[in-house]
Write a structure and sequence with these properties.
By secondary structure, the protein is α/β, with parallel strands linked by helices. An 8-stranded mixed beta sheet has the order 2-1-8-3-7-6-4-5, sandwiched between helices. The longest helix is centred in the first third of the chain and has 14 residues.
Length: about 230
Amino acid sequence: MLNYIEVDRQFLAVSKDKNDSQDIENYLKFNTGQSESWDSILSEYRCVVLAEAGAGKTIEFRERASLMKSKGEYAFFIRIEDVDRHFYESFEVGDDEAFDSWLDLDEEAWFFLDSVDEALLTSPRAFEKSIRCFAKAIKRGQLRAHIYISSRPYSWRVKTDQELMDEVLPLKGSDYQEGSNSNDEKSPSALKVYSLRPLDREKIAAYCQEKGVKDTDQLLDEVESIDL
């Protein structure tokens, strides 16, 4: 496993008016809105994090789970494609004993589920099957669960997957579902979608220095000159 290098990854909230994966990809290419840090989004309860292949989704999820676990929190890293087989054997960070302990207590937990696109390589319905299995496993503690799912933009089905999450992992009794009127107006979704922002030049330089690059400026100038 590669050693983790902390470069303070940033996230961009994706507007809820995006209707499909192409709409999201176009938005991510040109939007320069307010960035959020891990410290900000760890307070959310239902999140999807989008990024292209090789952007660092997996290592960020695994490291965040490991860091929180080392601080005494209930934190778990799980590959989505492993969930529907043997749930108690799917933990890569955390374990079955910690999970059972969390279920029996009144504590919060953080679940980092990686990744939708890898699960879909198995079958078109793999994500749905896995997330239903996961929801069943955490049912007693779902209101105390912070859930983060990673995906490539084109693998996330904006409407269908959001509806699935709202169905199987609702935040009943939360602010999201309060205030619905007598006409059965649909409550707003609890799910928030973020993109993992690319590294800027300063963060790339910090990464390169940790990797032992002797002339970071020259490397970055050459990378930019050929538009990589």
